[in-house]
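re: the backbone from monday

yeah here it is again, tokenized this time
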């Protein structure tokens, strides 16, 4: 019994243990199954995500491809539309051109129709006139018909003569310009005089500064006497061994210079001696003036000048213009005018006479009001010179309009003599001022970029802005600058105004 119970208990315990073991095994299997299921689920989710991403990538690629194809089709369509628009625009332009051409042709046709109508009217009038003439001629006798024929021939000849005269004038003008150049060149070559610019004598050297006190004298007695008698001013300053003489009259200044030099050489300086020396110096200078006038008249072959004209001409020996001796200038003008007159087949004596006397007024222009040309003409007229000579003197600076060939020749000879290189000079101050004035006049005009005074002030080169000044404007600008220079400045000879307009395009090859 006990054994049976033990067996039952053992069986029960064994069954319990087996149940527990089975339960444990089932629990472990369940956990393993759950873990396996979770892993399988995670693997499925990963695979699903991968498939989803691949599907999205493929969808994007497909969308991009579809978009690219759509853009390509759209571009092709736009190109086709643009091409069609260009064709339409070109056709419109061609149509417009054709319309314009048709309008022009229509206008031309209408104009031609108008001309044709006028010509038809003219022809009808001409036919009527010819018929009338024929009827009139048919009723004429021989003399009347001859007169009618001669009148018509005369009209035809007159028209042909007018044409020939016009052509001849053009040819003559061209030949005259060529001949005038040859004559001027020949005259300049034949009268190739040397020039030396003269300085007006206005200072006297003294052996020592001690003589300055003796020249001044006690309480200024000697210098006052000297200035009263000679009519010049003595400037005695700190300049060593130099006394300056100042006077507007060149002859008077020359007399003062000779008087002072004679007093210094003699050593006796007092009022009585000053007066005596002045009288001798005056006689000497007047003799030199007379000799200079006689020599000028003799050298030019003019022997019938009035004595007063000869004396006035001699005074030009002491007169200078821009450093050029006026008497030598007058002689050269006479020679040049005579040569040109001879080449033209004119009287060279009259041309020489006018050239010699053309600057006569400069000898007394400090005493008489007016320009030296007018003063000289009045002086020549007063002493018996002919109207042609008087006119040439008066017109050589265009105070009056030149009306004779001699007057024009004197003008040309005067310009040649004054413009020769080295003929005239200026002080450095006036020279610089003149160049500055030239440049300032040109720079004041609108559109001028730079200005350069060239060739000692005888040429002005004006650089202009090409955007502001056109080719036509440059011609007007050169004319305006030249006229302003004539109005505002005084200068010897002539000044050339050259306007330069330059356009530049710059690029670089890299």
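seq for it, each position gets an aa:
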């Amino acid at each position: 019994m006990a054994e049976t119970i033990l067996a039952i208990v053992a069986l029960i315990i064994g069954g319990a243990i087996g149940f527990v073991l089975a339960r444990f095994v089932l629990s472990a299997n369940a956990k393993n199954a759950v873990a396996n299921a979770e892993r399988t689920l995670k693997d499925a989710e990963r695979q699903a995500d991968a498939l989803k991403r691949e599907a999205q990538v493929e969808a994007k690629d497909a969308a991009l491809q579809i978009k690219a194809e759509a853009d390509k089709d759209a571009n092709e369509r736009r190109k086709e539309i643009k091409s069609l628009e260009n064709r339409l625009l070109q056709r419109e332009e061609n149509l417009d051109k054709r319309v314009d051409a048709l309008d022009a042709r229509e206008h031309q046709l209408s104009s031609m129709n108008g001309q044709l109508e006028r010509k038809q009217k003219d022809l009808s009038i001409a036919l009527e006139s010819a018929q009338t003439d024929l009827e009139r001629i048919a009723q004429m006798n021989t003399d009347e018909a001859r007169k009618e024929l001669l009148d018509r021939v005369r009209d035809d000849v007159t028209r042909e003569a007018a044409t020939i005269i016009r052509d001849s004038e053009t040819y003559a003008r061209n030949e005259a310009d060529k001949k005038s150049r040859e004559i001027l060149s020949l005259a300049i070559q034949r009268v190739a005089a040397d020039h030396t610019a003269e300085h007006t004598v206005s200072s006297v050297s003294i052996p020592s500064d001690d003589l300055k006190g003796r020249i001044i004298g006690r309480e200024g007695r000697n210098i006052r006497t000297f200035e009263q008698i000679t009519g010049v001013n003595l400037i005695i300053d700190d300049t060593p061994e130099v006394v300056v003489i100042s006077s507007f009259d060149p002859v008077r200044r020359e007399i003062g210079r000779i008087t002072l030099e004679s007093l210094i050489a003699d050593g006796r300086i007092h009022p009585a001696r000053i007066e005596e020396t002045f009288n001798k110096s005056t006689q000497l200078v007047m003799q030199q003036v007379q000799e200079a006038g006689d020599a000028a008249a003799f050298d030019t072959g003019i022997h019938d000048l009035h004595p007063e004209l000869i004396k006035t001409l001699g005074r030009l020996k002491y007169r200078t213009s821009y450093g050029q001796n006026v008497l030598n200038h007058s002689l050269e003008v006479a020679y040049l005018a005579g040569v040109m007159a001879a080449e033209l087949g004119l009287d060279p004596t009259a041309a020489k006479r006018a050239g010699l006397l053309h600057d006569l007024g400069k000898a007394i222009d400090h005493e008489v009001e007016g320009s030296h040309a007018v003063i000289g003409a009045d002086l020549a007229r007063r002493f018996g010179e002919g109207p042609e000579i008087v006119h040439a003197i008066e017109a050589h600076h265009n105070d009056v309009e030149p009306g004779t060939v001699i007057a024009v020749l004197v003008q040309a000879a005067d310009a040649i003599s004054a413009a020769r290189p080295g003929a005239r000079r200026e002080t450095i101050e006036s020279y610089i001022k003149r160049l500055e004035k030239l440049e300032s006049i040109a720079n004041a005009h609108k559109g001028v970029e730079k200005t350069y005074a060239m060739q000692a002030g005888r040429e002005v080169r004006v650089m202009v802005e090409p955007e502001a000044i056109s080719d036509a404007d440059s011609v007007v600008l050169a004319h305006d600058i030249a006229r302003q220079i004539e109005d505002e400045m005084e200068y010897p000879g002539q000044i050339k105004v050259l306007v330069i307009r330059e356009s530049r395009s710059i690029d670089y090859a890299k």
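Confidence is low (pLDDT under 50) at residues 192-201. Residues 67 and 73 are 10 Å apart (CA to CA).
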